[in-house]
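Lab meeting notes turned into a lecture example. A postdoc, R.K., suggested we walk through two folding results consecutively so the class can see how the record format repeats. The first protein's sequence and structure tokens come next.
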Amino acid sequence: MSQQLPPLNALRAFEAVARHLSFTKAAAELNVTRAAISHQIKFLEDYLGFALLERKNRTIILSKGAEAALPKLRQGFDCLADAVHLMRSEAHSERITVCAAPSFASKWLIPRLHRFSRQHPEIDMQINSNVGLVDADLQQGGGVMDTFFRQNQVDVVIGFGAGLYAGDSVERLFAVSAVPVCSPVLVSTEHPHPLRVPEDLAFHTLLHDDTNYVGHPRWEKWLKLQGVVGVNANRGLHFNHVSLALDAAVDGQGVLLGIKLLAQSDIETGRLCIPFDLPMPLEHAYYVFRPQQIQVNQRASDVFVEWLLAEAQAQNDLIS
């Protein structure tokens, strides 16, 4: 007979505290109070008969026994997560979950999904957006993303970054550039100061996409690249999401330095225009990646990624 184990909640609490070295962060992750975490750790220590943690100068230190057991405990939770994923996927073998950066999902992916559904009506799909996928966390490599895949039961991820995702299956979708975009009203001869050359920006409001992610375009860098002087790169309207900045540009409230890919649909419909076609290539790009291990939904994931790459190639051919 296998040895009786302590309650799973106590083990989860310990693993979270040991990983974060913080009771507060562990409580936030598990959506419980800090007191509840402390209670679970105390229960586990009483069960085992020795201290797992030691506090020194407001720092948490693991005991030797706790440190030795932690890798096996993490491996056990990973196995449990995989088992749950297998059970869920068995009932929906043709259902995949795709997680994408919010701006990419709304401006590029969702308008095209009807084509995928027509071609593959047998595959159900759930689309989740996550602002973390345009964050610096993606640059930390496969370890971070392995945790993301497991915790969120995601099959495919589309993110914006440098492509340094060691340990995952990665393919680049797009290299991207930033261009000034604005309402056609601002280039009309009826405007008091129509946009003709970059120096004309001095007479217009600059719109800033201040979304918190590594590699987003900045006016200061673009103005320096074009050799423009006399324009304050920091003035204007600032937004914490690119969709808000694009809406303001469509509304004629100013000129946005935006990722051309995300503005493309508005450009094609005439809601936005490029007053001067002076692109600034960005170091980061959009990537699609999946965990390396074989998935239950492997066939559906393969079909979706194949379709996604074909759509990306068509888009690249269109704007190249």
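The second example is placed directly after the first for contrast:
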Amino acid sequence: MMHFITDTITPVSLSPGIGEACAIALAQAGAAVCLIQRNAANTATRDALRLLGVRSEIVLCDLADMASVKTVFDRALELMGGEIHILVNCGGIQRRHPSVEFPEKDWDEVIDVNLKSVWLLCQAAGRHMVPRRRGKIISFASLLTFQGGLTVPAYAAAKGAVGQLTKALSNEWSKENVQVNAIAPGYIATDMNERLLADPTRLRQISERIPAGRWGEPADFAGPTVFLASAASQYVSGEVLVVDGGWMGR
């Protein structure tokens, strides 16, 4: 899991695959990037960004540790210097159990990582951006912001709340020139969906329903992320942009 901060400086909360694609896209657009991740030994994304000629650093944080989450924005700001202009919340976890058996421990962990950490990072970003009247906040929602899913009640609850949090913050901060939006991925071929990809029946059922005829890839989020992080989206706020190969349209 990572976040990245880009001067433009961006903090971004990332998950393997989509998070790395977002970080690379913002770096290619000229942003310095601070990766917020829990594994100090994993420097592959940071090193790839540096090869693009932009500054990239790592700040350690476990998104399940709220004490660490509460300090990570300020630690990233101190490391990078200047201002933070973009926050991307892309870190997340998944737990699957029938709802009658869903463990309380798993529920709490999913809500903490997928919702509470997003709220705390957005709040920290707002405290920094609102007085400066400049900022972009992008959180990653899900198709389950709109649908219930199967055997994932905690994830659906968290992602539904991310959509509403996006709207609530937009209502307060858009007048301060801080745009708050979200991206809702469809079915994407990443580690989080490993169990679905390995289930022939579910894989067929899902694949047949996607009008684009394929599962999404991390690279599909480069353009939407750069758009929402740039001046091109200056009058876009409170939106949940669905990137799903047409799934919701069907």
